[in-house]
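Reopening closed ticket. The problem is back. First fold of the pair:
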Amino acid sequence: MRLSGLALAAAGLRLSTCLSQDADQKRLGSGHEGSRRPNIIFILTDDQDYHMDSLKYTPLIEKHITSQGTFFKRHYCTTAICCPSRVSLWTGKQAHNTNVTDVNPPYGGYPKFVSQGLNEKYLPVWLQEAGYNTYYTGKLFNAHTVLNYHSPWAAGWNGSDFLLDPFTYNYLNSSYQRNRESPVSYEGQHTVDVLATKAYGFLDEALEHPDRPFFLGIAPVAPHSNVEAHTLEGDPKDIDKAVRFTPPIPAARHAHLFPDAVVPRTPHFNPSHPSGANWVRKLHQQPPENVAFNDHFYRQRIRALQSVDELVDGLFARLEEHNLLDNTYIFYTTDNGYHIGQHRLQPGKECGFEEDIHIPLIVRGPGVSAGRVAEIVTSHVDLAPTILELAGAPSRADFDGEAIPLTEGGIERAEGNGGRHEHVTVEYWGFAATEGKLWRKDEDRIILNNTYKALRIVGEGYNFYYSVWCNNEHELYDLKTDPYQLVNLLHPDEESKVPATILGVPFTKVISRLDSLLFVLKSCKGQTCVRPWQTLHPAGNVLNLQDALSSRFDYFYETQQKKVSFTKCELGYILESEGPQFETDGLVYRHGLRWDEWV
């Protein structure tokens, strides 16, 4: 196949960008002593929001990490619920490729992680193979319990002290399990304080081996809801019988803080008109007593985060004491976001709105700019490739993400010349749960038809969220004009608000491109997830949405290409219910050849 001049130029630009970024990462990974590989500390909170200003209430995290590191402004999780998100983070794979799509069996949780063969194929195992000592304390996965913690043991850790179900979310009655020992109950002690002691202990243990770099994962449960449970397994429709949700419980020393704090009163907070699609659009506006309770729920979340803030402060005191800061990278993020009141939603996650998928990511370390805000699009599947690159370990061909540039120069090149992808694949299967109070007799704790595939795309002059639900309802938000996602441009009730043109072309033209891009991404593997436009256009002459809007591609996108759809709503990833698949039903742009005819 002969490439056009444009394609050759584009390929050369991408190659030079990748080589420059690779060189930057190698310099980063070498650490301040040249050949000595860096230590890596990864702090992973649970359900921490970006859009309700939680970081404004953590001044010690601001002091030690944000002001001294780079804040990645456009970072996303790919599945907005704990276990699937964590599995994607540690494997570098989308949930449709891990097939861990829920928090509990049969579709998710630790047993599903094991049955999919992932206990031998995730980050700590690869880091050990690269010569790292690895340590972890806190929550690893859901359905990792006091009964199955040794069936089998979680692989890849030199030292571990895991939070275990059914006590994972019980702030004052947690159970931890250290190395190959039996679980220990910490009834009456605050779980984050227990965790802090364990984290500092593992740091001391790592320092006993100065000849080996270390990775330390720290995963506090805050600010997740407090959950009292007998079991977290079984039929999700029976969850109200098995568990009790309450607001998070802060440490006693923090219980009085922020008495006047309330959920930010943004335009989409408990709006007067419905928004969204499917079950979300049927929600009722919340009465004043409901809003008041949710404000209390919010205060409890930011109070619970104070223990995490103190944990970080103690961690940095020890890093400074042992002169480790010059050769240690610190990552701070969360598994997924959270909503309280936005779009009339009760406290929870599992939706595709910005509150649930757009989350904090902050990185501090040698060569990382202090106080920098990066605009590049990043996601959780990019983190395992990033950490392996810092560790000087080989990448993996089956990663669905790519390493994040951390240097000033690497970020500027990725921001300035299109050398990095502009999209995030968002996907969800199964239920949505209300974690606050139920205020109406017709409200349900569990909503079962919450399966959808979605796309976030941010580029020069555009900022869209596009989704297809399992009942085949569609959503489109133009976040440049509608940052709070109040107007679903694909809902019949919003027809009067649909613009005739977007990006200078007819509205329908943009929809067809977004749908085709999602068609590729909803079942992509490896580099196809990173460079989906090149899959649609193998000649290499389309690198972004703007390129794809060329009129010469109209027939390909608007007439030839199949559309994203579902044949059935499922609680997990059931391929035959997922509708047409690009690998068997899609086309590439080359005289209309089918995908299977091209390859």
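Second fold of the pair, where the issue appears:
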Amino acid sequence: MCGAFLYCSFFTVSAQEVAQNPLIHADVPDMSIIRRGDTYYMSSTTMHMSPGVPIMKSTDLTNWKLVNYAYDTLVDNDAMNLDNGEQTYGRGSWASSLRYHEGMYYLSTFAATSGMTHIYTTKDIENGPWEVHEFKPAYHDHTLFFEDGKIYMIWGAGELSMVELKEDLSGVKEETKHVLIKNATDPIGSNYILPAEGSQVFKHDGKFYLFNITWPRGGMRTVVVHRADQITGPYEGRVALQDKGVAQGGLIDTPDGDWYAYLFQDSGAVGRIPYLVPAEWKDGWPVLGVDGKVPETLNLPKNESIIPGIVHSDDFSREKGDPALPLVWQWNHNPNNDLWSVEERPGFLRLKTGRIDTAFIQAKNTLTQRTLGPVSSGTVKLDVSQMKAGDHAGLSVLQKKYGIIGVRSKADGKEIYMSKNAEDGGVIATLPFNQNEVFLKIECDFRDRTDKAYFYYSLDGQTWNELGSVLQMQYTLPHFMGYRFGLFNYAAETPGGWVDFDYFEIEDTIKHSQ
């Protein structure tokens, strides 16, 4: 028999007709996946973005579509609001745990920004509403599990601990905390960069399996699995996968009984990208990979959903009953909802200024979507006729080392400008500009981790001109997120102006070649 790997000699479907790894070539880290019948649901991390903790849906494990978020607002404080010079880049909500138990969906996460553990519950994962449960402290990289009428939470790094939660999810039961595994990093030895973390626990054939990521010094990100007969332990561990740095995640089965590990890889500036790895059970352990390797193809339907399921173009036209913003959009930090609209000028996104900001990364209401690999471009058409002196508006690629192609208004007129983060010299190039409309484009090349961005403008939408210099994109831990396209408008001198975006177009092609 073929077994769970499904790599039989009679399998003749061409590689173009089956799924490819990576599963999604975009920033979708810290996945947690469950299956309900023939439908899969996946949560992920988007940290400082709002709304947060995206929920994606699939019926084949490879084609995913955003269907919901767990919250609109994680917390209302200066850091999450970009107020008073505060920010929470690289923090916000981290790795979530998605579960289903007795008719209820549970989505838990934690946040240094709030200092709390957050648990969101709903009976309808696609439509909500979500009920919010919050308590201190913030349990790092935790996993939820229901067993024998009890609710457990396992968390930690290196030393993994367990607590039992109260039935109403208002906190932990007193005197239930105990060390579950003293040194979960032990299977890779004592010389490591990253202690075992990212816990996800599963039950199979009466045994419990705890997945973690760890990183040996001089090696790569590694999957470690511990096994026990009881959820409370004792646990024995082993290395489960060490290939291409693909690690951190858990297990999922199909209705036909096939098994996969869902994991992700740090892939440079595009972010942390998901992989599926075939799994089979041998001697009571999950064995991951094909001869211990991450395969390039999978015997699953071809993955074709990143556009429009995960990212999507938008002409900002809305029919009655449509949401103001499709789920592909997220705000950088909490937005001010009084300062944006798709109704004031139908068919346009209006971004208004309401305060003075002197730095792009502190500006309110930057609206974002993921970039995607191996290449992608974002294009906007922008009406700048109502900008005030000191205003900056346009298109960006957002990370700590950001890049901008935009328009800035001055007392003596407007100019198109290209800018990088201050570490690379700030404004690189300018061009006088006297029209009311302009077209702006950024192309991103992530092939072989080239990680370069190119900036263009057009006065008619037909002829494109490159401006400024190439941005060497870099995934940095202070932002801890893959690059995102961002639509922005902020006032450096006088609030009250606005710009109108006619459309945003995202494509998985670029004209620039290596």
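Update: turned out to be a display glitch only; the data is intact. The radius of gyration is 24 Å. Residues 320 and 343 are 11 Å apart (CA to CA). Please close again.
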